[in-house]
Write a structure and sequence with these properties.
Length: about 170
């Protein structure tokens, strides 16, 4: 890995970690200090409008329905989520945000908006557009990487591809 790649890797990891720490600290210090970051992201996935099924919400979060059930149980007890059976199909459980859940999700969204505003603020309109397009490219690349891991066969093939890439880069660098 060359110096530029090393710096980029270190900065990406640092940004990721600091965003998580900042989110966690803002939660701890704020009105919703009884919510974990994972619970806040669950509220975001449920969304403020239509009630969602447990399956839909689990897919959005990329977790199993069983894992979501544990989180939703806690959020129901804390008063942030309401759970009800579907009127047409009683097997289907729908979840929605309570008034407090909607408020918490809005406040969390505001955290992200303020973060984005402060990142963009020092730049000209053209620089902001360029920065946004670069961030979108990184996001698209990461989406393709996540998709590579959708099933076990792909994971095995991806591991082989990554190993091959690493060997090829070492050969190219030598």
């Amino acid at each position: 890995m060359n110096d530029l790649e090393q710096q980029m890797a270190e900065n990406l990891v640092s940004i990721f970690e600091k965003v998580l720490v900042a989110e966690e600290k803002s939660l701890q210090k704020g009105y919703f200090s009884n919510l974990s970051l994972a619970e806040m992201h669950t509220l975001d996935a449920i969304g403020p409008y239509e009630a969602r099924t447990m399956t839909e919400t689990a897919q959005i979060l990329g977790i199993t329905v069983g894992t979501l059930t544990v989180s939703v149980d806690r959020l129901v007890k804390k008063g942030f989520v309401a759970r009800r059976r579907d009127e047409e199909d009683r097997r289907v459980v729908r979840i929605s945000l309570t008034r407090d859940g909607k408020l918490a999700a809005r406040m969390h969204g505001k955290f992200h908006k303020v973060l984005a505003k402060h990142i963009l603020e020092p730049y000209t309109d053209e620089e902001q557009e360029l920065l946004l397009s670069l961030v979108k490219e990184v996001d698209e690349y990461l989406n393709t990487q996540v998709a590579r891991y959708d099933n076990d066969d792909k994971i095995r093939q991806t591991a082989k591809d990554v190993a091959k890439d690493v060997r090829r880069r070492k050969t190219d660098d030598d």
